[in-house]
Amino acid sequence: MLAKYDFPELTRRVILAAAAALLVAPLALAQTDPLPSWNDTAPKAAIVAFVEKVTKESSPEFVPAPERIAVFDNDGTLWAEHPMYVQLAFALDRVKALAPEHPEWKDTQPFKAVLEGDMKTLAAAGQKGLLELIMGTHAGMTTDEFHKIASEWIATARDPRFKKPYTELVYQPMVELLAYLRANGFKTYIVSGGGIELMRPWTEKIYGIPPEQVIGSSIKTEFRMQDDTPTLYRLPEVNFIDDKAGKPVAINQYIGRRPIAAFGNSDGDLEMLQWTTMAGAPARFGMLIHHTDAEREYAYDRDTEFGRLDKALDAAAITGWIVVDMKADWKQIFREK
Fold first, then answer.
1. Taking burial as the number of CB atoms within 10 A of a residue's CB, which of 7, 132, 184, 226 is the most buried?
2. In this structure, are residues 143 and 232 in contact, taking their beta carbons and an 8 Å threshold?
3. In this predicted model, which residue has the larger pLDDT, 28 or 151?
4. What is the 3-state composition of the chain as percent helix, strand, coil, each rounded to the nearest 5?
């Protein structure tokens, strides 16, 4: 004998259960923390508040998606820049690899200092010396050849302290921030003093930022036909230095929109943050990453050759830029594999 069921009542229960499930799912998603590597301190709250007010259509500070541009420095903001810039580490390795083809380097500075491991003399050569190293090691080849060399180096080179690939020393909190912004309709760009061709081979895989959204320093190139093949040949001449006042110039030239959010860590980012935030409406956001964690990474600001944070740190107190204390505000420093 078949059991008797109250089908109207059963149907009602099924409908209510399904409705409850539909309500619970969005709630669970809404409660998922998009920035799990950030401690629940003021910087995280400021990020979330800014994103909410520029993305909510009912907000008086709503910003349409095409105008949601966020720019990020790379060295010291997205990945480690100590004990030296990765660009410099690459140049040093290139000097050693090319030395057999250039016997004159044994008696020519700053190449002589590199080959002898004389970092004091190399440091004294300053930016001029670094440019000489780059011109001597990054030019004289096609862009495709350089791309191959840079890709192979970044895949095999190791940081001297952590003994890991440099691409594993990217900051997990910042990787989460990039993803969070993109999930909320932002377009994210790198605006770095580092070489554009050294960054482009790997930024999409590591940061989710494609090559066309990477802006950096560059050397001149010219079109050449080589064995009936069209190429771009790298010349030993500076094309553009994407640092300090050069950053707003590059943003205007390559992006064509003033960003509404900018993230940096040093005086090299001062003008980029000024250009982004000191322009009135709509809502704008500036953030500095302050390296304060000597145990998990490094602690430095005003007294360092790499990533000096001095004028920009003073400006933050006046402009209202958020300053991230890495030791206090980040649960985790480096990216998870």
1. 132
2. yes
3. 151
4. 50, 20, 35
Distance CA 94, CA 215 (A): 23
**Cis before 282 (ω within 30):** yes
pLDDT at 16 over 50: no
Residue from 327, 331, 37, 333 nearest 177 by CA: 37
Q: Output the six-digit token pair for 210.
A: 């494609």
Q: What are the chain's domains?
A: 37-83+164-329 (3.40.50.1000), 86-143 (no CATH)
CA distance to 7, 23, 27, per residue, from 18 (Å): 16, 9, 14
With contact defined as beta carbons under 8 Å apart, do 201 and 151 qualify?
yes
Cα angle 329-333-337, degrees, rounded to a multiple of 5:
140
> What's the rounded Cα separation, in Å, for the pair 250 and 67?
17
In the predicted model, is pLDDT for residue 17 greater than 70? no
114-128, 225-239, 260-274: range with lowest mean pLDDT: 114-128
Residue with tokens 């109207």: 8
Q: Global pTM?
A: 0.89
Segment 240-250, tens digit of pLDDT: 999 999 999 99
Is the confidence at residue 1, as pLDDT, over 50?
no
Query: What tokens does 146 get?
Result: 């350089």
Can you name the residues that pair with 189 across neighbouring β-strands? 71
Question: Which residues, 6+ apart, have CB-to-CB distance to 85 below 8 Å?
Answer: 75, 194, 306
Q: Please enumerate in sequence order all residues whose Cβ is within 8 A of that of 74, keeping only pairs 6 or more positions apart, or say none.
A: 190, 192, 194, 199, 216
CA–centroid distance for 3 within its chain: 66
Environment class of residue 194 by beta-carbon count within 10 Å: exposed (0-12), middle (13-18) or buried (19+)?
A: buried
Strand order in the sheet with 229-240: 141-142, 229-240, 214-226, 187-195, 69-72, 261-264, 285-290, 322-325
The contacts of residue 11 (CB under 8 Å, 6+ apart) are none
pLDDT, average across residues 157-161: 96
SS3 237: strand
